[in-house]
Design goal:
Structural class: alpha+beta
Largest sheet: 6 strands, antiparallel
Order of helices and strands: EEHHHEEEHEEEHHEEEHHHHHHHHE
Number of domains: 3
Number of strands: 12
Radius of gyration: 33 Å
Shape: elongated
Oligomer: single chain
Number of helices: 14
CATH topology of the largest domain: Trigger factor, domain 2
Length: about 450
């Protein structure tokens, strides 16, 4: 067997294989003997039919099996000899194949990039020295209190922080909103809609224009949809709403007493406050961890540069594009709007794909150098959790994942998390005053 390698670009190679005619003939003889042993021919017991009859009947099958066997074995051997880390299925082109002739074929493939790991111990990160304050606990308690609020109908004009129950119909540029954003039906028309009367409720500036209105009164409300509005097709446009106030309600909050605390499983208000403090501290710790990990990853990425496999980046880019488009459609963006933004969408997706692919190679290299692996029981535990979240039996969920190598993706994510944990354990973390740590 002879293998030659030609570089076609970053991480892309063309391998040309040639198998000696003697090996080709030996492969034909070996496969033919297998067919002779198992072939079923009329009037003959298995393995007793004449060679000529078997070869004539199964000629194409024998030839195909020889081709498959030689190509598979030669490819695997060539990859091993050349010490290539192949990351994609090869694009194979057959050049020559027949008895008594060299078997020649070529394979175009992508390999993992070759790079030197930077020093990954002692990566710098800043951690804000913050803690839960009494004001934080008070706001937490108020949030719980708001969850148990009741609403009492009042016979007076709308005041700030009231609940206005309204019917409305919206237009923009003289057209119903659904003509501009077909999926934004809830924004176009609604009856008995509850809206809290404060500046940023619903659409910024909408609710505050209801101040002073009484039940039965009608008003025209003018708004400007924000540039980052959830319904992208309406972003930056002006809208007009015809609004009828159906009812005015005021919020009634429960008393902060032990009965209130017991409704949340605490024995007393003191116990509830302590529970809220612990929950808030846990949230703060998680936020600090995310910020630190983000800085560590960024520092690691900035310390090494290398070429990325174009095919792998393009595959990830397609996934990113799909996700961006799906989110945009859920937010009311029309096909026309998405088409207009296709270049921006692709560029954003491509940038994200490059970041993900690059980080994946670096984290895998660190895992390999440090000898990190994920135990089977850890993988199975994660799969069980994912199956539960998907409301599926674990075995059925695993079968679904296996169809698209989903198990490998879950394993790799667990491995990457472990590597980042390792990097965080060995990072050089500086505690700084609030406001001096980068945002995640």
């Amino acid at each position: 067997m002879n293998v030659t390698v030609e570089n076609l670009g970053p991480c892309k190679k063309l391998l040309r294989f040639e198998v000696d005619p003697t090996q080709v003939d030996e492969a034909f003889e070996s496969v033919t003997k297998e067919f002779l042993r198992h072939a079923a021919m009329p009037g003959f017991r298995p393995g007793k039919a004449p060679r000529e009859m078997v070869v004539k009947k199964y000629e194409k099958d024998i030839e195909e099996e020889v081709r498959r066997k030689l190509m598979s074995e030669t490819y695997r051997q060539g990859i091993k000899e050349q010490k290539l880390n192949v990351i994609s299925s090869p694009d194979v082109e057959e050049i020559q194949f027949s008895r008594g002739q060299p078997f020649q074929f070529a394979a175009t493939l992508e390999t993992a990039p070759d790079f030197q790991l930077p020093e990954y111990r002692g990566l710098p990160a800043k951690r804000e020295m913050t803690s839960v304050t009494e004001d934080d606990v008070r706001r937490g308690i108020e949030a719980l209190r708001t969850q148990q609020a009741t609403f009492e109908k009042v016979d007076r004009a709308v005041e700030e922080n009231d609940i206005a129950v309204v019917n409305y119909t919206g237009t923009s540029e003289g057209k119903p909103l659904t003509e501009i954003a077909p999926t934004a039906r809830g924004l176009a028309e609604k009856k008995n809609f509850w809206i809290e009367v404060k500046p940023d409720a619903f659409i910024p500036g909408f609710a505050i224009q209801l101040l002073g209105a009484k039940a039965g009164e009608k008003r025209t409300v003018n708004v400007e949809f924000p540039a980052d509005f959830v319904a992208a097709a309406l972003a930056g446009k002006k809208g007009t709403y015809e609004v009828e106030v159906v009812e005015v309600k005021k919020r009634v909050l429960p008393e902060l007493d032990d009965k209130f605390a017991q409704s949340y499983g605490a024995e007393s208000m003191d116990a509830l406050r302590e529970g809220v403090r612990k929950d808030l501290q846990n949230e703060l710790n998680l936020k600090q961890k995310r910020v630190v990990r983000s800085q560590i990853v960024r520092a690691l990425m900035d310390r090494v540069q290398f070429e990325l496999p174009e095919g792998l980046v393009e595959a990830h880019t397609r996934h990113f594009v799909y996700d961006i488009v799906a989110r945009s459609q859920q937010q009311g963006a029309t096909k026309e709007t998405i088409d207009q933004q296709k270049d921006q969408i692709y560029n954003a997706a491509n940038a994200g794909a490059k970041e993900r692919v690059k980080l994946g190679f670096i984290l895998n290299a660190i895992a390999d150098k440090e000898g990190m692996k994920i135990a089977l029981e850890v993988l199975n535990a994660r799969l069980a959790i994912m199956a539960s979240e998907a409301n599926m039996r674990a075995d059925l969920y695993v079968k679904e994942l296996q169809k698209n190598d989903g198990i490998g993706a879950v394993y790799e994510q667990l491995l990457h998390d472990r590597v980042i944990d390792f990097l965080q354990e060995h990072a050089k973390i500086e505690d700084v005053p609030p406001g001096q740590a980068p945002s995640p």
